[in-house]
Design goal:
Blueprint: H1 5-14, E1 26-30, H2 35-51, E2 56-61, H3 64-71, E3 80-84, E4 101-104, H4 111-116, H5 118-139, E5 142-148, H6 177-196, E6 200-205, E7 207-209, H7 220-229, E8 234-236, E9 243-244, E10 246-248, H8 249-262, E11 268-271, E12 278-279, H9 280-292, E13 298-300, H10 321-324, H11 334-349
Parallel strand pairs: 1-2, 1-4, 2-3, 4-5, 5-6, 6-11, 7-10, 8-13
Antiparallel strand pairs: 9-12
Helix pairs in contact: 2-8, 5-6, 7-9, 9-11
Length: 350
């Protein structure tokens, strides 16, 4: 996979100062074949080339060939080492004697698998996180754990939701294995910080997209964008009433790197752009206007049979104040995020 002009443009927009804390560092990244993990790796490799940082990167992946295909164009100096690892086993492969930082993004994110394999979803989250926390404990590495806004559940609150607010999750639903396991892993991170002094910060990530998404990406934001670019109708499988919280991919990576460098151990931080809060229906209408000049119509095709695979409707407006107080400044609101995504998708098509 060649270097994307849009990915490189996003990298440049983040600035040198974000990457300087990692000069000469060794960094372990999980989930490097997913959007966030791969972008963290790609940006660090671009930083090596641009700023001569000499960062050493070890990616823990299930599919080494897929990881190499994603990263090889960015890895001009052979700075990436791929280790095959099944985090569900709770075992870190031999070969990591030391590291300075850990970015743990790996998790089961497919709604279908969450429903059909709820045990795997829970076990992978817990065992993988425990293994990475043990590695951080053993090596003294700082760590950032990628959680999810789904931990908030159904929350009845007017105004913005801070990190200390939590709602109800129906544990009788197999789909709840994902948010409940994320809650458990957050608690585990806080416990390692308290009992062992592990420097782990927790990032509750909003829905994230942007330049760099994978060709196999099929989440709703990608479906909307591809439909609009093709001049096709945008199809909603729900009524689109859920309130969405979003963050542009480059801004999310900037948040994770900031938390690696400055995050307080055991603390949780919402990663969202408050200017990008909207309903799913509202987002569909924005995508139509931004990428098809309003030609794509919004069509409802309610999927009652597959409804168990969708997260329940939520009314949630996340606050990013805590993260912004660390110095994080997002660069792209929802319209700009889709404009950049559209440019990236056109680039990939050509």
């Amino acid at each position: 996979m060649k270097i994307s002009k849009m990915v490189k443009r996003d990298f440049v927009s983040l600035g040198r100062d974000l990457f300087e804390p990692f000069r000469e560092a060794s960094i372990v990244i999980t989930g490097a074949t997913g959007l966030i993990g791969s972008l963290v790796a790609r940006y660090l490799l671009l930083a090596n080339a641009a700023y001569d940082l000499n960062v050493s990167i070890c990616v823990l992946v299930r599919d080494a060939d897929k990881a190499r295909n994603l990263l090889e164009a960015y890895d001009a100096n052979g700075d990436v080492h791929c280790l095959v690892c099944d985090l569900q086993s709770g075992q870190i492969p031999e070969g990591i004697d030391s590291c300075d930082y850990i970015v743990h993004t790996a998790a089961i994110t497919s709604s279908k698998i969450m429903v059909t394999k709820p045990v795997d979803t829970i076990v992978t989250s817990f065992e993988g996180t425990r293994a990475l926390l043990e590695l951080a404990h053993r090596t003294g590495a700082r760590m950032v754990y990628l959680s999810s806004m789904e931990v908030y559940g159904n929350i009845d609150k007017r105004g913005k939701t801070s990190e200390s607010d939590l709602g109800f999750i129906d544990i009788r639903s197999v789909r709840s294995g994902y948010p409940e396991s994320k809650r458990l892993c957050e608690c585990l991170c806080t416990s390692y910080a308290e009992q062992y002094g592990v420097g782990v910060a927790i990032a509750r990530l909003a829905q994230t997209f942007g330049a760099g998404i994978l060709p196999t990406e099929n989440r709703v934001f990608a479906q909307f964008a591809r439909s609009a670019l093709a001049g096709e109708n945008i199809v909603l499988k729900t009524r689109g009433l859920s309130e969405g919280n979003y963050v542009y991919a480059a801004d999310a990576v900037a948040a994770l790197l900031l938390l690696l460098a400055k995050g307080i151990a055991g603390e949780v931080y919402n990663v969202c752009n408050e200017a990008s809060h909207t309903t799913i229906r509202g987002m569909a209408e924005l995508v139509s206007q931004t990428l098809s000049q309003g030609k794509s119509k919004i069509v409802l095709e309610l999927d009652e049979e597959g409804a168990s695979g969708y997260a329940p409707d939520v009314r949630l407006f996340l606050s990013s104040e805590k993260l912004r107080n660390l110095g994080w400044v997002p660069t792209a609101d929802l319209r700009e995020a889709y404009r950049r995504l559209g440019e990236f998708l056109r680039e990939q098509k050509n």
